[in-house]
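re: the backbone from monday

yeah here it is again, tokenized this time
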């Protein structure tokens, strides 16, 4: 409950005024049958003035009910919408603090569902609850009191009807909660499938996997349909059973009322009987409404649990304990001391095992090794996308955990393997590196990344729009824009994680030359599959199966590293075969 208080407190007046307005409407609802009975009971003896007075009173009560109903709906909407907006914002902010480990725990489709559908479910429930929290119980209690005052003996019918409804409601909740949980899980799976398919349309089409994806979608869609049908069956049986109990109660009241009138002259006047029937209707309809709210709460509880999982998730990478909150990366020295790392902590096998090396500031370092050797994992630890299980990583002699994340990541520019661009112009995407950059700085960064040449060929130049994911430009162009974006940060350390794989060798050579000549004060780490990309590096680190198996310059490694020489020989052989 403490979690939700935060979102109620700023809008407390709406949460209070809404039910109060509804309570005004309820008072009117309870009074109306009494006014009607007063007219009917004295129909023969009433003077016109008396009837007019009661009718005026009924009109005033109806106006009061109208104002209460409108006020209740208005304040209920204000409270629920603001609650949901703040909650959605906090969930989004929390997700932004997640490390890669946290994100790996939740699928992307599941996070989207929790941010949208689950929050909407809670918003709808709060709105309904505020409008009914006093209306249904208030009307039930008020109508029950009025019914007992009218005819205590006949009110004993509720001793049977109300427990019957309560037992039925408990049974509905017991059946409904696990079904709504299952439905939300299947909705997660559907969103994940749709997102993967739409994001990877080019791959789907290039491999002619349309039919496979249609079948895959049909399966998850059918799972959602079937789980939804099972959950909604609860709602299907709810209304008929409640209506049956209501009608049986009214039939019993009419039968008993008629019997009383026959046995005793004027034992129950027609006005009182009509009012009693109306109160019966109000009592049982209130119970039905409460039941609907409780069933809705089953789905809402499922959504609350899923949202709570995000809000209480422990973020494993934080800078609240940073010892140097004002310290920034100044030089670019890097040192790994006995570093080991596993993605899945329960696994014994390590992705990186006892890694030790030093990188001097302003140097160029290449990292090479077979696929799956741990190259990306190693550089991900530098910017604390993950934290090591053992050992220390130091920049400028300070543990990376002692920097704030902002200062650490501002000082280290990293171009990831997956080149992600965002909807907007080329200029907007490059300015992700520095929102305050001017046109000259943007163009300079693009020139260093060898991107300016193709940008100016577009009719709109730097104002050219990029589609979602950068699907309207080539892979090599995306890589160069991502490099330009990182360069605009002016970091002291720049990491290229296989970020020139889609660039031709001539352009790659120009980029490396520009880096060497223009970024002399920057430490440069280049992860590559091609030996040619790292051959001129001051230091080359060779990884194999998560361990360093060679370290030195090209000539040294050719003599002492079997893995490096095998990679070199295989690539030279392929090159010679290609040229031949």
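seq for it, each position gets an aa:
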């Amino acid at each position: 409950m403490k979690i939700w208080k935060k979102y109620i407190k700023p809008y407390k007046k709406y949460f209070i005024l809404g039910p109060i307005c509804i309570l005004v409407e309820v008072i009117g609802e309870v009074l109306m049958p009494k006014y009607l009975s007063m007219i009917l009971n004295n129909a023969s003896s009433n003077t016109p003035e008396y009837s007019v007075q009661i009718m005026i009173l009924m009109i005033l009560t109806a106006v009061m009910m109208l104002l209460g109903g409108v006020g209740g709906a208005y304040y209920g909407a204000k409270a629920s919408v603001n609650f949901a907006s703040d909650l959605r914002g906090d969930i989004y902010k929390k997700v932004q603090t997640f490390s890669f480990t946290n994100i790996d725990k939740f699928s992307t489709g599941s996070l989207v569902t929790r941010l949208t559908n689950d929050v909407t479910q809670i918003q709808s429930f709060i709105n309904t609850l505020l409008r009914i929290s006093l209306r249904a119980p208030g009307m039930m209690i008020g109508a029950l009191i009025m019914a007992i005052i009218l005819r205590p003996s006949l009110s004993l019918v509720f001793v049977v009807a109300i427990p019957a409804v309560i037992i039925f409601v408990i049974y509905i909740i017991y059946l409904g909660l696990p079904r709504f949980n299952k439905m939300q899980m299947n909705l997660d799976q559907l969103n994940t499938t749709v997102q993967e398919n739409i994001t990877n349309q080019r791959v789907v089409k290039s491999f002619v996997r349309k039919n496979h994806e249609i079948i895959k979608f049909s399966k998850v869609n059918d799972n959602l349909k079937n789980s939804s049908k099972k959950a909604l069956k609860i709602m299907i049986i709810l209304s008929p059973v409640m209506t049956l109990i209501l009608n049986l109660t009214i039939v019993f009241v009419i039968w008993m009322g008629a019997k009383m009138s026959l046995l005793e002259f004027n034992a129950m006047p027609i006005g009182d009987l009509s009012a009693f029937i109306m109160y019966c209707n109000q009592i049982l309809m209130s119970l039905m409404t409460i039941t609907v709210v409780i069933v809705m709460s089953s789905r809402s509880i499922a959504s609350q649990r899923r949202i709570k999982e995000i809000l209480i998730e422990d973020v494993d990478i934080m800078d609240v304990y940073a010892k140097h909150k004002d310290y920034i990366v100044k030089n670019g020295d890097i040192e790994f001391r006995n570093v080991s790392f596993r993605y899945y902590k329960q696994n014994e096998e390590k992705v990186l095992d006892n890694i030790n090396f030093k990188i001097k500031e302003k140097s160029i370092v290449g990292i090479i090794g077979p696929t799956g050797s741990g190259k990306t994992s190693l550089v991900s630890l530098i910017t604390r996308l993950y934290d090591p299980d053992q050992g220390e990583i130091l920049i400028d002699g300070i543990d990376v955990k002692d920097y704030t994340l902002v200062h650490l990541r501002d000082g280290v520019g990293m171009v990831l393997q997956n080149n992600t661009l965002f909807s907007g112009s080329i200029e907007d995407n490059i300015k992700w590196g520095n929102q305050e950059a001017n046109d000259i700085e943007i163009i300079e960064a693009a020139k260093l990344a060898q991107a300016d040449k193709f940008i100016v060929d577009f009719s709109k130049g730097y104002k050219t729009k990029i589609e979602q994911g950068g699907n309207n430009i080539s892979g090599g162009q995306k890589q160069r824009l991502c490099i330009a974006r990182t360069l605009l940060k002016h970091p002291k350390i720049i990491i290229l994680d296989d970020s020139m794989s889609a660039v031709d060798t001539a352009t790659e050579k120009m980029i490396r030359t520009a880096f060497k000549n223009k970024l002399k004060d920057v430490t440069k780490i280049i992860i590559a599959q091609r030996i040619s990309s790292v051959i001129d590096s001051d230091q080359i680190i060779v990884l194999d199966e998560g361990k360093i198996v060679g370290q030195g310059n090209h000539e040294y490694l050719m003599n002492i590293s079997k893995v490096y020489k095998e990679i070199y020989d295989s690539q030279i052989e392929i090159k010679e075969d290609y040229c031949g």
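The chain has two domains: 2-311, 334-419+491-579. The longest strand covers residues 334-341.
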